[in-house]
Amino acid sequence: MNDLDLFSDPYGDPYGDGRPAAEDRPSRKDQRRTRKVQKRRRRNGRAAALFAMAFLVAVFGTGGVLGYAWLDDKWNPPDYAGQGTGSVTVQIKDGASGAVIGKALEEHEVVKSSRAFVKVFQTETRASSIQPGFYQMRQKMSSAAAMALLLDPKSRADTQITIPEGRRAVEVFELLAKKTGIPVKEFQAAAKKPEGLGLPPYASNRVEGYLFPGRYDLDPNGSAGQILKQMVDRFNKEATSDDLVGKAREAGMKPGTVITLASLIQAEGARPSDLPKVSRVIYNRVEKDMPLQFDSTVVYALGKRTLTVTNEDLKYDSPYNTYKYKGLPPGPIGNPGSAAIEAALKPKDGTWLFFVTTDPDRGITKFATTYEQQLELEKEFRAWQRANPGN
């Protein structure tokens, strides 16, 4: 074989013109069948391409519409128009953000969407001045109109009240009645139905000691029972936060005993700094098996409020009379605050057995270890009484 043979095709091109041998050529019928198959494939290919293009247009076209709708809803959230109609009460809680306020308004059907309100809230420079409380709003208001009402002091119900530490239950009822217009007897009746107030099991079904002092925004439409439950709920929240049950166990006391002790401390301590020292006096006297001899327990039993306790008063037969009966009284004599409860659990170190508030006007309380020192302190108090008759 010469070099030319390397480029020859002994089978497919015997004539050297690129044509296959006659016996290897497809018949005309086969050629027509091949052309039909190829044409069909081209047609199907074009159809598939057109379908794919149509699918992509549909997908991206719909996505574009949906995307536009989403952006439009985000930039222009649904909102009512106008000042709204009717009346509905909405509570704005202390520290509520614009989103939280908006959610509350939407739930009460004041605004159409919380996002519309948040948009207004974020552009209102006075938004941070919205006060907690109950507001008289209208339904189906524009977010701008709702914001205007929240910024108007006249829209807020005047039901905010502060209950001081140490008030007795009956005194709390009187304060609540004066603020809400609900008769005292309705609060008294509600207190006699403890099952609906959420009292802790150690309260022995009594509200005394468990109406937590502090500031409250009262629901203008709330009942006496709902208001008392609000105060008991506040106690439960504080007790859980401070782990009252666990700390009482560590101190070897029942939680109810801690609240009773705290109520005595609150009643006798004039200044916050005095509370741990008063607590120590109680601990020391109980350990020495001495009666507490607290005037505050006697006047509680008598249902009075006075700094003048007579010898006849001291003879009053009641388990709350700590002159006649040793140890703590059977229950709280008022509603203590957090500082008094803390003092009940953590008394200050000391040997005091006596104390006298020698100047009630200025809240000056002095402590003594011996009875002789106590007598001198009582002289100071008697002098204050003579200078302030009627107390």
Following the backbone from N to C, one meets helices and strands in this order, namely HEHHEHEHHEHHHHHHHEEH
Low-confidence stretches: 1-18, 65-72
Task: Please count the beta strands (DSSP E, at least 2 residues each).
Answer: 6
Mean pLDDT: 87
Helix content: 40-55%
List the total number of helices.
14
Strand content: 5-15%
Structural class: mainly alpha
Largest sheet: 2 strands, antiparallel
Overall geometric form: elongated
Cα-based radius of gyration, to the nearest Å: 43 Å
Distance between the termini: 142 Å
Give the spatial strand order of the biggest sheet.
1-2
Verbal overview:
The strands form three sheets. A two-stranded antiparallel sheet has the order 1-2. Strands 3-4 form a two-stranded antiparallel ribbon. α10 (275-287) packs parallel to α13. The relative contact order is 0.07. A hairpin with a 4-residue loop joins β5 and β6. The chain contains 14 helices and six strands. The chain has helices at 28-75, 98-107, 114-123, 143-150, 169-180, 184-191, 224-241, 244-250, 255-268, 275-287, 295-302, 311-314, 338-345, 371-387, and strands at 85-92, 133-139, 160-163, 214-217, 354-359, 364-368. The longest helix has 48 residues, at 28-75. It starts with 27 loop residues before the first helix and ends with a helix.
Attribute tags:
47% helix; 14 helices; elongated; single chain; two-stranded antiparallel sheet; two-stranded antiparallel ribbon; 6 strands; 391 residues; mainly alpha
